């Protein structure tokens, strides 16, 4: 009989992992559990899981591999419950939480009982939630952080990577504290800033409704992540409180600095502020997926007439090239518009470029 995998939390990440585990281990049975039974039913009908349970305890006691993919506070509560039930000696438990210190500390309590827990965090995701947004390629080429402690045997690290080979992710090891510090900077703080920015625009928008209508590329780019799950981010902030309090203090100081050079009309310092940021941003590793997403974008000049967008997308669909995002820039009456198309990989960008050029579309990439 094939092995049993239990996925608890059938949302974006649990669903995507279930798909990539099944792809690499088709003989295993994927059992799902979610607090929300509708999520279980949807996961079953989308063939993300083989079956679901309405109480995970029995399935946990027979599982070979357990993935916790709930918001981080619930993951701790579930690990607490695992302390009270029988789990097979050979079973490996992992989580996908965006914070690691508290979860790994709880996992150590299980280790003391002879149950193997190895913390994990795939550094790829989306502002979308729910199993319907699952994608077996979500983690391809992304960093997958694992946080082994001294109490976990190396064989379990290999076992985890084998289970998760279908993700196509690149595994790296970090101490839980280092994980929370680094992701605090490149993931958690940006989510706070994005949400605060949307709140500010919302306040002005109450008095001047046109403001939100005017929100164009820049605002949308920097605030996309403000559409993420509030319960997930509530838990992340509470788990990474100390790190984020320090970062917010430094952030406030940084805002004070820019305020001060602006008040003084210090043009040189203002230029240096943007120039230094541009150089740092431009130097981010290209072609890598992870917290620092690369741009797999192609820009296409389009004449401003009806049907042109469906023509472009139709050409790409015929070649089976998936578009992950589409945006129209500068499309005003009677002038050329620009279509910004995002793809999963650089290869898809190149293929799309070739096909569209063959169809007489002018295309260009950004560096
Ligand atoms: N979204 C991302 O970009 C991303 C990336 C990497 C890691 N993560 C982490 O992955 C985890 C899941 O995030 P997601 O994006 O899949 O969220 P999601 O909202 O899409 O899914 C979470 C699911 O967990 C279920 N759930 C909540 N409490 C539960 C409980 N006690 N028992 C069983 N099910 C429960 C919810 O009903 C929901 O279906 C979080 O810990 C998050 O920090 C998220
Ligand atoms: O792409 C997004 O929407 C994300 O927010 C993904 C993101 C991130 O901050 O980069 C969010 C939380 C995770 O723990 C890992 C990845």
Automatic annotation (TrEMBL):
Limits of the Prephenate/arogenate dehydrogenase domain: 3-292
GO molecular function, one term: prephenate dehydrogenase (NADP+) activity
The keyword RNA-binding appears for this protein: no
Gene3D superfamilies referenced in this protein's UniProt entry, alphabetically: 3.30.70.260, 6-phosphogluconate dehydrogenase C-terminal like domain, NAD(P)-binding Rossmann-like Domain
Domain (ACT) ranges: 297-367
Pfam families assigned: ACT (PF01842), PDH_C (PF20463), PDH_N (PF02153)
UniProt keyword list: Amino-acid biosynthesis, Aromatic amino acid biosynthesis, NAD, Oxidoreductase, Tyrosine biosynthesis
Catalytic activity: prephenate + NAD(+) = 3-(4-hydroxyphenyl)pyruvate + CO2 + NADH
EC number(s) on file: 1.3.1.12
Pathway membership: Amino-acid biosynthesis; L-tyrosine biosynthesis; (4-hydroxyphenyl)pyruvate from prephenate (NAD(+) route): step 1/1
PROSITE patterns in the record: ACT, PDH_ADH
One GO-annotated biological process of the protein: tyrosine biosynthetic process
Domain of life of the native organism: Bacteria
Entry-linked NCBIfam families: PRK06545.1-5
PANTHER family in UniProt: PREPHENATE DEHYDROGENASE, PREPHENATE DEHYDROGENASE [NADP(+)]
Similarity annotation: Belongs to the prephenate/arogenate dehydrogenase family.
Entry protein name: Prephenate dehydrogenase
């Amino acid at each position: 009989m094939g092995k049993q995998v239990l996925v608890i939390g059938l949302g974006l990440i649990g669903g995507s992992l279930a798909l990539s585990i099944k792809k690499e281990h088709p003989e295993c049975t994927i059992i799902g559990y979610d607090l929300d039974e509708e999520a279980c039913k949807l996961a079953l009908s989308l063939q993300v899981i083989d079956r679901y349970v309405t109480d995970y305890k029995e399935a946990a006691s027979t599982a070979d591999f357990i993935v916790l993919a709930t918001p981080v506070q619930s993951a701790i509560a579930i690990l607490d419950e695992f302390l009270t039930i029988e789990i097979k000696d050979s079973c490996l438990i992992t989580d996908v939480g965006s914070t690691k210190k508290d979860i790994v500390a709880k996992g150590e309590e299980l280790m003391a009982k002879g149950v193997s827990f190895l913390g994990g965090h795939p550094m790829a995701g989306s502002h979308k939630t729910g199993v319907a947004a699952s994608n077996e390629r979500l983690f391809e080429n992304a960093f997958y952080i694992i946080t082994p402690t001294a109490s976990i045997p190396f064989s379990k690290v290999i076992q985890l990577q084998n289970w998760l080979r279908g993700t196509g992710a690149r595994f790296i090891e970090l101490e839980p504290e280092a994980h929370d510090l680094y992701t605090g900077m490149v993931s958690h703080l940006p989510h706070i800033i994005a949400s605060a920015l949307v709140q500010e625009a919302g306040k002005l928008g109450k008095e001047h409704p046109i403001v939100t209508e005017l929100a164009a590329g820049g605002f949308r780019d920097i605030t996309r992540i403000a559409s993420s799950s509030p319960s997930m981010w509530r838990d992340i902030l509470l788990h990474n409180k100390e790190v984020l309090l320090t970062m917010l203090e430094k952030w406030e100081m940084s805002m004070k600095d820019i305020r001060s050079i602006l008040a003084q009309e210090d043009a040189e310092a203002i230029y240096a502020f943007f120039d230094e940021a541009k150089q740092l941003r431009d130097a981010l590793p290209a072609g890598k997926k992870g917290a620092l997403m690369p741009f797999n974008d192609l820009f296409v000049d389009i004449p401003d007439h009806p049907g042109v967008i469906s023509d472009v997308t139709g050409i790409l669909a015929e070649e089976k090239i998936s578009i992950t995002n589409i945006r129209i820039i500068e499309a005003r009456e009677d002038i050329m518009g620009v279509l910004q198309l995002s793809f999963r990989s650089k290869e898809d960008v190149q293929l799309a470029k070739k096909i569209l050029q063959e169809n007489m579309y002018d295309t260009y990439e950004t560096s």
